[in-house]
Amino acid sequence: MATQQTPVAAEKDAAGPQSRPEDPRLIVTRTSPRGLVTAALRRMRGGELGPAPVVVGLIVICAVFQLLHERFLSPQNLSNLTVQVAAVGLMTTGVIMVLLLGEIDLSIGSVAGASAAITAVLAVRYGLPEWIAIAAAVLAGLGIGLIHGTIFAKVGVPAFVVTLAGLLGWQGVQLQLLGGDGTINVSDSGAIAALTQTYFVPAVGWFIGVVAVAAFALITFTGERRRAAAGLQAKSLGEQAVRTALLAVPVFGAIAVLNQFKGVPLAFLIFVGFVVAFDLMLRRSRYGRMVFAVGGGAEAARRAGINVDLIRISVFGLASMLSALGGVILVSRSFSASLDTAAGEELMMAIAAAVIGGTSLFGGRGNAYSALLGGLVLGAITSGLYLLQMGTPVRYMITAIVLLIAVVLDAVSRRSRKAHARGG
Q1: Could you tell me which of 286, 358, 404, 311 has the C-alpha nearest to residue 103?
Q2: Phi and psi torsions of 150, nearest 5°
Q3: How many alpha carbons fall within 13 Å on the CB side of residue 212?
Q4: Which pLDDT does position 11 carry in this prediction?
Q5: pTM
Q6: 91 and 323 in contact (C-beta within 8 Å)?
Q7: What would the DSSP string read from start to end of 364-420?
Q8: Rounded distance between C-alpha atoms, residue 403 and residue 409, angstroms
Q9: Stretches in the chain below the pLDDT threshold 70
């Protein structure tokens, strides 16, 4: 039986899809500058602050310290800052993975210290090639994390308790490996030292920057083409070009500054490389989506067919692996493994950097770039206070204030998102 269209429906069909009202549920309803500004305001009202507070805070911190000391933004100081944040930044990346599950890992500092001791013992006492010692330490970190994750996921012991035991236990392993002397010196010209002593010549630095920006542009273009082919809202070429330019400015600017000293440091490049790799894994892989799903609600994820235990075990394994690599970087910086390696503030700084960078303590929200942003914020504070010859107590107090502000913003934005959802 044929159906007849009403005059109103016929007029709508004749007018075509261009005249149909836009769906108000869409965050971005048009890709014009006005539409992007409107979308940004809607996100802010809904509690989606993104990295904006961290970026603004970092700019303010740099401006203040530059006014107080003219050498803060010098190429040498900025280069030292990038190397300084690499070790804790890698540990922070692992912390972010655990926080996305809504859990906490208190053992990362001890794991880094034990891995540092393993590296030095194998390379110096047993005379193994340094790259084998590095690989063994990283694999040991992975194994430690898998043990923690298995006890947490399969036995049911809370992650806080498991990793607290790990904090004490692996610190004991570190002390046992280092022996009575408490310090093992490594070569200042081997593979271990090269991790923090290698700087790329300007041409290589520029090549790396061009490749990074071009890869971002290609990935963005390919992703938007797929969205358009699937009938979804896609960014225009103009918006893609603007986003690429926004990435190119800090990348090329940083390379230009670092090339004025020694070049792009290998340690910082390793850190950024892991951040980018983990960000792509979290945002564009099935595994990453499952991590967010488990962090958003473990029971709901389990009912959706996700192996929650496997995700939890793997995340703790990756977190400890990154902590182990951070421990190796610490050995590279000081040319030694000692009782003080990762035995002090590294744990608290890694957790603080993750939260300051924008990762939620409540699970299910955050990204790998939080490690980079949070690490730069804490590194800038440390570097600035060092130039001003202020002691550790002042740095701890300022870091505590910045951390508290970040947690307050997280709690407020979380409450705003809930209120926005109820209002919608």
Answers
A1: 311
A2: -65, -45
A3: 22
A4: 46
A5: 0.85
A6: yes
A7: S---THHHHHHHHHHHHHHHHHHHTT--HHHHHHHHHHHHHHHHHHHHHHHHHHHHH
A8: 10
A9: 1-50, 414, 416-424
Query: CA 230, 231, 236, 237 torsion: positive or negative?
Result: positive
- CA angle 129/130/135 to nearest 5° reads 105
The model's pLDDT over 390-420, given as tens digits with 9 standing for 90+, comes to 877 888 888 888 888 877 877 777 676 666 5
Q: Are 57 and 377 in contact (CB under 8 A)?
A: yes
The gap from C-alpha 167 to its chain's centroid, in whole angstroms, comes to 22
In contact, 119 and 135? CB cutoff 8 Å: no
d(CA 238, CA 204): 29
Q: Are 85 and 357 in contact (CB under 8 A)?
A: no
Q: Is 191 helix (H, G, I), strand (E, B) or coil?
A: helix
Other Cβ atoms within 10 Å of 146 Cβ, number:
17
> Which residue in 148, 51, 137 sits closest to 101, CA to CA?
148
pLDDT, position 417: 61
**337: amino acid identity, one letter:** A
Strand residue runs (E) in 115-268: 183-185, 199-200, 264-265
Under 8 Å between Cβ of 294 and 139: no
pLDDT score recorded for residue 25:
43
Give dist(CA 224, CA 242) in Å, integer.
14
If phi over 0 gives left and psi between -120 and 50 gives alpha, with beta otherwise, what is residue 366?
Answer: left
